[in-house]
């Protein structure tokens, strides 16, 4: 179901979907200009290096992650955040099980197609 432009999203109504080995994601809310996604990682799971044309801002909701952006790696914990410029190669490794909250602009149409 396309929830584009629906102003409210209730967590209990949203499902998790596979997003890689040990990684699941939940599309929270979105419109054409912006999207919010919760991404859950098992300990040791990797979000492989990739790039996309979207700006991405992310919050470490829980856990500990090694985040690499354009060849620079930092260890981030709950409450820390990062920004990925358009086209930058980036990836994540969960050192502990945890959750990232990602915001993309514009929305990731590939996540809902």
TrEMBL record:
Annotated InterPro entries: Bacilysin_H2HPP_isomerase (IPR052535), Cupin_2 (IPR013096), KdgF (IPR025499), RmlC-like_jellyroll (IPR014710), RmlC_Cupin_sf (IPR011051)
SUPFAM superfamilies in UniProt: RmlC-like cupins
Domain of life according to the entry: Bacteria
All copies of domain Cupin type-2, residue ranges: 38-96
Protein name: Cupin
